[in-house]
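As the next step, I wrote out a protein sequence along with its fold in token form, included below for the reader:
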Amino acid sequence: MINKLIFILLLYTSLGQSQSLEDAIYAHLDAFVENTSSTALQELKANAIDFTKNAQNTNEYLALVVLYANMGFYDKQYGNFQPAIRSYEKAWEIYKSHQFESYDIIEYTLKPLGNIYTQLGDFANAERVIKRYIALAKSQNDSQQQVAGIINLSVVYHNTGKHSTAIELLQEGLETHGLTPEQVTALENNMATNLLAKQQLNKAKSFLKTTNKNDVLKLRNKAQLAMKEGEYEQALRLLNQVEPQLINETSIARDIARFYVEKASVFMALQAVENASETYLKALKILLPLESFVLLPPKELLYAEPTFISIFDGLANLQASSTIALAYYDLSFYVSDLMYADYTQQEVRLMHQSSWKRRTEDCLDILWDDYQTSQNSELLKRAFTYVENSKARVLREQMTQQYLLKLHPEDSLLQLRKKLTNSQEQLINLSLKVQLTQPNAKRIAAISDSLSQIHQALRQVQGRVEAKYSDSLSTSVSLGQIQQKLRQDQSILLLYFSGRSHIYRFDIDDKSLHLHRISKDSVIKQQLSDFIGFFESPTAINRGIADYRETAYALYQKLMPEAKTANANLMIIPDALLHFVPFEALLFDASQSTVYEQMPFLLKRHTISYNNSARLYNQAESQGVKNSVLGLFPVFEDTSKHLSYSLEESKHLEELMPTTLLLHDEASSTNFKSLAAEHSILHLSTHANSGTFTIPATMEFYDDVLLVQDLYSLQLNPKLVVLSACETGVGKLLTGEGPISLARGFQYAGAQNLLFSLWEINDRSTSQLMASFYKHYSHNQSVAIANRKSKLDFLENKEISNANKSPYYWSAFVYYGAVEEAKEQPEAFWIYIVISLMLVVGVFQIYTKRIKKKV
């Protein structure tokens, strides 16, 4: 590769009459290639800054492209991935401005750039770059580079779990004319890899039949196939055959380390613990070539390399000592943090949540076992920290950034970060809409190039923000802080963690912390499924009241503490499917009643609020601003989407609160966005949809459909958001983060307090609930209390039939946000005040009349 780069250098220096700057660039690069070192590379970079400032003509800009591509190549060789990315992106930026026909930008810039993003787990940027050069290759009729792009893109799809998409893409590649034998082998290998991931072993075998003894990739795939079939000795023999071919002087250290991780996993399957440990450590020594090697390397020596995570997780799993095992897991978390810091798009960050959560569960299992023996309360505190750090990490960080901007509104650096983040989200959203509606290659390419520029700018700004506000950017929270908040709110916190084998529940009040473990067996899985299923239609509960009572009480017994003070405030932090459970509709006692009003719903015992994490609960606050409602009611009259009770809901709202109404065609997305900042409460009564695995959640305005991604670029700071629409709290469930719902979109945009729905709500009952909610809220200024009282009013309303008092009609709306103390005065107090005033007025009038008579 180095010889090839030197050849390119000589080729370009021989073209035409060179200008002095062009000569200087090639001379410096030639000297560096002759004597490469990390120090020499830094000197070359310093010169590159001056060269870039002074470049004027085409030949000079071409020389700069070659220079930056070489700097990227050598930074990559030295393991300096982020500087390599900057150099490759700079080369691409210059190339786009001039379009040099004689330079292969795909081979020397875009392919290595896409590969680095893939290696770092930044799959969104990897996909963006690879798709960009596939499109470029198509425009140049370069089928070889198109196939190379297909192969590399399939790796991205494999790593993000999109195995079916990868298989379709690879099939397209295999049908390309004029493939070289090497390309056919690469395509077949990747096809086998994805088929193995989908457990389609026989199909995978068909691509692994013919194997050259020197075909390293196919041999490794055969080893993976043997592993899946339980033939561990065969897998080890195949990897032993690979080892001498893979490990040579030209091999990249990272690739060798990954091979040893693969081999260690075979030893683990064979229960050869000592061999597995030695092999993991061998991989670690390759990545950290220290003179005096230590089993637990100091964090300062680690860097953003995914292979470290596989090594530390593997070593943790082999330890007999829980202390050492947790220390290895902590190193994995640390490297994950380093990688996370380099990602600028929330999509990429969300992709990595599942591995973080799996590791958290392993740590919890260790701490639980240790606690059963020692009863050391410090272990529970540590368990709480692990779980809290795994909760809604992306949302937590975003809201922390918003909180920081609120504290320092004039800081230009924070303003710039917000501007860049919003621009990035707008472009991602635009790209999604273009691909969903009318794909346009040129437009997608333009969006991709803009995203590239914003990504680089945002990374630099993020680094500066972290350096300036390192103490303020922590998204963790201590148990002491939570207990102080609970004391203030007179609340009890129930924090859930749903893992593969168990559901953990932390019961926290202002003085104590308890941890409970619930076996995640087939019984509770079925009970959760059945309970959530009761809310899929208006008639499901009424058709099976006895089954509902049994399930609702059984779940209460498993999910809730045995005895908590009645009427206490409950703050619930759900997880996984528990996000879709309306806890208010559980039964705290057995019941034989068929009358809903008489059933012992948890609603009658507690005022319940929710949040995504303990940190967000601790951070949530209710702004002491004057109530001013912006009500959006498209109504959709004379259409199949007509919301017949929506106007009635708007009238109740206007009677009870100071309100600006957007009705019918005024309920447009433009009007909402322009007026939202002027009001403290946003009330949206419309149609919404939770989306599917591929289509995002949506909300309808009169003139437009808003995607959840549209919300990410908004800047909102309301006191409260009320989403009076269907399924606004439902969306694709992502491990660790929760549902990617419209409610989360509003949180991401800045809303801390929200009232939203968990299923398709009934138009009429919603209107009744909202009228009652605002009636109570206007008196007590507490969302949680008003939400509870509106539901109790519904149950106690004699005009509503028993069938329509099913929990389906009243328990859909859940409140996420701050716990507020009621500010209302008792009605008797106000009656006393009114009577007293009337008496005072009466006495005054009598006294006045007597004075006049005397006169």
About this structure: The two ends are 116 Å apart (CA to CA). The longest helix spans residues 441-468. The chain has 36 helices and 16 strands.
